[in-house]
Each structure stands twice: as structure tokens, then as C-alpha cells.
Amino acid sequence: MSTARTSPAAGESKDGETATTAHIDRGDVARAASPAPSPSKQRSGQDPRRFTVRVLSDWRELESLKPEWEDLAENAIELAPCAEAWMLLPALRHGLPGDTVRVVLVFGSDEKSQEGRARLCGVFAVEERARYRGLPSRVIRLWNHLYSIFPAPLLRRDCAHESLRAFLDWVATTQPAHSLIQFLELRADSAFFRVLTETVRHAGLTNLIVGAYARAFFRPKSDTERYLQSIGTPHHRHEWKRQERRLSEKGNLTYASYDPSQDAQQWLDEFIELEASGWKGKAGSAFRCNPAHRAWLEEIVRSLADRGRLMMLALRLDGKPVAIRINILAPPGSYAFKIAYDERLSKFSPGVLLELENIRRLHGLPGIEWMDSVAAPDHPLMDRVWSDRTAIVSLLIAPGPFLGKLFLAAIPLLRLLRRIAVDTPPDNR
Fold first, then answer.
1. CA-based end-to-end distance of the chain
2. Would residue 227 count as lying in a domain?
3. Which of 99, 305, 317, 407 has CA atoms 20 to 30 A from the CA of 238?
């Protein structure tokens, strides 16, 4: 499993771009999306609420909105960790890499309400790019930082379509006419993708799928043993048992899971040291090598523990960890976030052994229906031990007038010309 998220460009490098004006349609992607019917109040245009947008870039100002932010998360169409306060605020505070990151807040107010108080209905963390694939087109995209796991906004359940439309309108009215909106690496079966496709269709916005691939995904079977017998080959399953047996000959081999009564920091310290002992430590990309990134990780793990959304597993040999993984729970789903293992014991595949234990634990975890691997496509390990797949889609939208649509329509043509240039042999005359 990838210990850092895949590059945003990974999803965009897939072939077969398709421009549409009324809907998003590409085989399995379209079937996975199955957009839900839009709310009747959206169809009738009689929604009494007014939606306004506020843009902030200083995390100190955002801190004051935490109570409203938490209320939004409790009433969201789905949990979106990267847009939740406990993960987004530390990312801003500790300066995770990003280009001009701003947070677009959508508020909705009911004019008939006695209170007349606006509620926070949407949170969009965005960054801006001056060009897209050589085109002088301004791009507003959802922030997809180094450790992003699902770069979707947080939307209130009872006004998700309207909040998203308010965001799209904000881009169309406040940004240059040639601006495009980019949504990177969305799960096609997610609630947000359904809302996005429905809103784009109703608004008649020009859009373009710029990347689509499948990645490993976990859904439990009727029982653990049935699942384990369905993955890998008979040779793989025999080899995993042999490796576990051989490793246990070196000492007392045990599996453990983090318990809320335990000290999450102690578990995290073990993970950080184990990660730094391997190739990431040598390459300088381990959390221990970057104080700001380590501080971010420590803060979000504490928040996860406080919320009861932290899942950590360890494989220990004589009490010392030889593999540790961190999962983020987001009921009814979850995300495989980080894994580290003792590379000196690679011939025993401690990371694989812990992954198999993860599968066993997930089958007995109430309220969790799936786990996203957040792995690169065609991952050699995750594709072998996880039998399901989920469609991942990257999308561009032209929210404004003619110029943005023109740039969007030019992208497939530019791609075709580049292919022709690459495939054409040089003239040696």
C-alpha cells in the first residue's frame, strides 16, 4: 500500500478524455455514479434559503468557526476528512505544501427563519494554478496535498446541491472568464460525486473527464475465511502462512490493535520510528524528517483518537513492532492511511501479514462497510489482497461563459496533437 497519496497527475495521465455538455458518461464510471434525483425544491426553484460565500486563507480566522464546522460534519452527506476541521486546520497551520490555498465557505440562511442566522453549509479548500497543460487557463482546484485521502468538500445534507451550485457560481462570477474548476481523484461511488454529476447536469455546464482508473477497495464478505480464500493464488496463501510461521520462530509473534484506553501518542511514536528506519528515512521523506509534517500527523491522530475514529494495528515480535498501520474511520467507510514495517524482515513480509490481519479486523468492525486503499492503480500488493475495486475520476468543469468552454474543448485536441508529435518519427533527410 502506498504510504503517501498518489500524485495528482496520476489520475490525469489516463487516456480517453471525453467532453460533455449535459452529463458525465464513461462506462463503469457513469454506472458507478448513478446520480440521485435532485431535491424537489431544486427542481421547482422555490428554495427560500439564500446562499452566500466567504473566502478565508488565515487559519486563525477559520478557528473561530470550529463549532459550526463540527455541526456541518455531523450533518454532512458524507464525511470528507480533508475538508473536516480536525484535518484541514492543522494542514494550514503547519504549512503543508499548496499554491495559494484558500478556504471557500458557503453559508445558507432562511429568510423566513426567526433567527435569520446563516448556517455553514459547505467547506471547499482550494488552490489556484495559472495554467493547465500549457493552456493559459486559470484553474481552481480542490486542494490535494501530499497526504490527501479523499479531496472532496464537506456539504450539508439538506442543501448539498445548492451549496455546490453556490461554489460554482462564485468561481464563475469572481474569477477570470477563462477559469476552470478541477476535481481530482473522486470516488465515483461517493455521495459527493453523485451530487456533482446531478448539479452539473441541471446547470448544463460543460465538463471533461481528464482521468479515470480503478484502485483496490475493500468490502467484507459473509465471513473472514471466505474473503481470505478469495484473494491471491493458492501459492500466495500458502506462502503467507509459511512466512508467518517462520517469523514466529524468531520470538513471540502477536497482533495488537489500538484501544481508546491506551496512549495514542505511544503508538504513533512507534510508527514514526519504524517508518524512519526504512527507505523513507534514508530518502528524507519520513515524518520524522520534517518537523512540520510530524506535528501535523501528531495533531490529527490525537483528534482521531478523541473522536473515536482512529484504528491502528501492529504486528509485534517479542513486544517490538515489526509492522504498524494507521486507518482513518469515516463511518460507514474508512481509509487505509499509512503503513510502516521493519525492512530488515522483508523476507517474512510483515506488511502483508499485517494487511491480512487488517482484513480480519475489518470483518468484525461494526458500522464499517468499506475501506478505500488510497493506493496507486495496479498496486502490486493491494490489488492482490483486496478483491474489490472502486472507480476514481478526475473532472474539469467550465463554470463561466464562452472562453472557459473553449479552453475545455481544446484539451482533447491538444492531447491528440501531442500524441501525433510523439508518434511521428523525426525527419532524417
1. 49
2. no
3. 317
Q: What are the backbone angles phi and psi of residue 133, rounded to the nearest 5°?
A: 50, 45
In terms of domains, do 118 and 162 share one?
yes
**167 in the Ramachandran plot: left (φ > 0), alpha (ψ -120 to 50) or beta?**
alpha
Beta strand 119-129 pairing with 154-155: antiparallel
Residues 110 and 205 in one domain: yes
Interacting residues of 411 by C-beta distance below 8 A, sequence separation 6+: 17, 19, 132, 133, 135, 208, 210, 396
> Among 116-125, 187-196, 417-426, whose mean pLDDT is lowest?
417-426
In a domain, 374, yes or no: no
Do residues 82 and 152 lie in contact, with contact meaning Cβ atoms separated by under 8 Å? yes
Alpha carbon of residue 382 to chain centroid? 17
Residue 9 predicted with pLDDT over 50: no
Containing structural domain, residue 166: 8-218+391-423
Identify the CA nearest to 297 among candidates 258, 326, 330.
326
pLDDT, tens digit, 9 for 90 and up, residues 371-391: 999 999 989 889 999 999 999
The DSSP secondary structure of 194-253, one letter per residue, reads HHHHHHHHHHT-EEEEEEEEEEEEE---SSHHHHHHTSS-HHHHHHHHHHHHHHHTTS-E
Q: Is residue 24 part of a domain?
A: yes
Ordered alpha helix ranges (H), 263-401: 264-276, 279-283, 291-307, 350-363, 382-385
Under 8 Å between Cβ of 385 and 352: yes
